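On clarity, I found the account of how folds are encoded harder to follow than it need be. What matters is that the chain and its backbone geometry are given together, residue for residue. The format is easy to grasp once an entry is in front of the reader. For illustration, here is how one protein appears when written out as sequence plus structure tokens.
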Amino acid sequence: MYNVTSLLEAISEALDIPESYYKQAVKRYKSIGTWLERDESIVTCYNPEIYPQGSFLIGTVTKPISGAEEYDIDLVSELSLQKTEVSQERLKYLVGHEIESYVRANTMNSRPEESRRCWTLNYADGAQFHADILPAIPDAEPFKQFLESRGYTPSNWSDCAIAITDNTLPNYSLISPDWPNSNPKGYAAWFRHRMETQFNAIRKSLAESIQRQVEDVPEYKVKTPLQRSIQILKRHRDIWFDKNQSVYGKKAKPISIIITTLAAHAYNNEADLQQALLKIVKEMPCHIEYYNNGAALIRNPVNPLENFADKWQEYPIRKTCFMDWLRQAQYDLTQALGLSDIQSVGKSLKPCLGEQVTSDGLRNVSNGRSRPASTLSATVIPKKSYAR
């Protein structure tokens, strides 16, 4: 007899990036890294490092609702430079020059596109993904000093802080200490900390099942209920917003970093996916803080001065959209997962998670092809990308 958790695990597995796309994405971003390190590269003397950020780094990549949509591969290209040596404009040029030469050497059809912060590589050979490459430099010590000047004690996660480019800023072309900052490695380490108990338990269980040492089990082979819950919530968001976009506008779609952060706060290392998902969707609002003027505050857990909900004050429709979606997600999931048999659960989930992935999940569960959570494949998180 299969339970609801078995179905949820099968559905979330169906939401994973296909193995072929995943391998291709990893191969290509490593290829970019090799290109930046070659002897002829104008950045090789700056010890370039390229690594994933966002959902690729934390293992929550979710299949687009349309087969025509692409996966976003968010990458960081970090050079060993200091703010006293380079402007944001110069840094972006250095990375962009090498990306441009990479495109020519590989006879790619599309030139890299420059956006506010990134360079975008579009692959035209059926890869169904594009890469956003963010130029960056290390910023740990300046960031720690900045936090201390504002009365905050830096955490160990601050060791991974980076400074990034933004071509809309007035000092973009100047040598200046004032750069935007980010910390994708630190965020990934915090996220991992939030699910550490279950992560270690699943990894140990898998090691025992194959009669190997825990260290022999690659970390990317583990997928926790937190990661699975976020995938399900992101899919629910995508479908709900697709239906309601005309009501809220194209730019009001709830952003993944807010969903991920609130879900991670709400997660308490529950072992059961059904239990974890229902708890998360119920308690996410409890982790939104509010200023005295009523403005919402969702702190970046590795930068207490950054508010992920800062745009809600300027664009109230975004807050309205997020709250409306979250209420709907809680209702849909609570109603569906409270039904008595797995076929009824699947039927109830199809409108809000998608016909195809839900049907795939039902079929795989009934055929006994759904794998336990401990063996589900996830995105590789290179060891050097964790917090130091």
Observations:
- The first strand starts at residue 49 and ends at 52.
- The chain is about 45% helix and 10% strand.
- The chain has a mean pLDDT of 91.
- Residues 225-248 form the longest helix (24 residues).
